Please model this.
Amino acid sequence: MNRLNRYGKALLFLVLAATLVCACTAVLADEHIGAHVWDEGTKILDANCDHPARYKYTCTICGATKEENVGESDMTKHDWGEWIIDKAPTCTEAGERHRECKNNPHHTATDYPKALGHEFEWITVTEATCTATGFKKQVCKRCNLENASEVIPMVAHKPGNWETTKEPTCTQEGEQARKCTVCGTKVETKPLPALGHDWGNWSTVKEPTCAAKGSQERVCKRDSSHKETKDIDPLGHDWGEWAVTKQPTCTEKGVQTRTCKRDSSHKETKDIPATGHDWDAGKVTKQPTWTTPGEMVYTCKNNPAHTKTVKLDSITKPNNTVCAFGPRLRDSSTILYPNVTDLWYMYTPFSVQAIKDAPGSKVEYELVASNTDIVGKVTLSIVDDELTVDYTLASNTIKITYEFFTILNQITDLNKYEPEDLRSLALQRREPMNIQEYFGDDDQLVLYFCSRCDYSYSPAFRDLAYNSVPHQQLLQQMLSLID
Model:
């Protein structure tokens, strides 16, 4: 039977399709012959728990329409009615209820509302009084279940008027109280302040002395056993004039003494400061030199036996010139400008390539103060074609007071020899300068280091042997570099 039904449905579908094709063909016989061309369709009914979604389709050629179900029913989309109570919940048991779908009454949902729980309230069984407690219990409003019971505390007393029950004294408080008008119990007390003493006048019972206190006393008029005392301050000393009892010296303190006029056994002393030395102008006993300190001796005018010796610093050379070693301007005047200068300042010709070829790409020259003392060294170094000038001092006894140095590419640029006149050309210590940028390809340059300094002797200094063979050889090398 089911198979026949399937065959019948298939045959019916073929007949309907042929009819529709013929109809479409008949309508459009003048234009084309063929099946309907349906559009994408329009949803006319959403799917729910009872049926799938339904679409309407239209032939884009002849305008014919058809409706079809698409997909399956959606069992999640019910249209529920109101809940129907099958069993009401109680305090301790859950209830039961159901509802039906409006789309299909055979679709139902069941729910079990939870138990309501007890709703307790307190009920007073016996009222409390000021002498006895009461009683209450807790009962459920729905099922009358007793859950708990409690004692109700006694209520407060009803106090009457205040009455004095203890009189106060000088030092002790009294008391007032009041009783309950219902049961007579003492329910509240409060203190009455002590009266305090009613003192008489002060009278002296012990006279004071220079150093010891005296005393006074007074008696309470209410109670003679109550007494109070207070001190009388000592009179203090009535001192006489100060008298010198020991004379001071240059190095020792003196003493002054005074005596109390009330009691000659009471004495007081104070120091007289030592007079100190009154030194004369002093006498030089050892003259200072460049390398050794001197000495000066002072004698006290108060006591010639008292003397003191003061060290005199070795000789300091102030405001001297400190230069990098090289030819002296005065010796080279014929090379620069004949008969232009008689200054003894030094300048230092050098070769850029010689520095690059030297170990560590750096060379050092002696730093000379006063053209006589070697007090440090000047370092020229080249890194990445950048020239840096730096110097170190051999001792902290030399202080640079004015720093000046510059680099020139021609010795004839020294048309002015005082550093102050070349201030605009001054360079900064340890600040690199690009050789190509400043001097181009010129390999022979001149360092003009001419600072000012104050200095005193140090064993770290050495004498400059300007005419020695090594120095003269170095000078000849430098002079050969002059453009």
Remarks:
- Residues 2-27 form the longest helix (26 residues).
- The mean pLDDT is 85.
